[in-house]
Amino acid sequence: MEQHLKLVAILNIVYRGLMIFGSIFLFLIAAIFGRIMDFLERRGELRAEDVPREILDLVPIILVIIGTIIFIISVAAIIGAIGLMRKQEWGRILVIVVSFFNLVHIPLGTVLGVYSLWVLLNDEVVRIFHPLPAPPPGQAPH
Length: 142
Description:
Layout: H1 2-43, H2 53-85, H3 89-102, H4 108-120, H5 123-129
Helix pairs in contact: 1-2, 1-4, 2-3, 3-4
């Protein structure tokens, strides 16, 4: 299970690193959204009456909110994965929580989420993070 544990940490770092790039892309789109709409209007591909201006004004705000959520969860996942590699219980818990968020990112996030939960909730892995205390000298283990 040690190999699975290491693989879960590495896969979470890689996947969430890619998600950070995705969140940065959302921030960029939000920043230039007005220019994109102006360009489409000039080309005649979008007419002002097609979409109410109020809705178009909300799009950059929504993109920034989604990008921020993805960025925060991704940074937390990377920090948790580093804790996982160092066999810290808080890292295991953090990656378990992030794994539930991964489940909704079909298909790759779902696969990673299921695999991470399978590994991190496994009894053998739990024992790695919570080893049984050694019996006192002279007593046989139960």
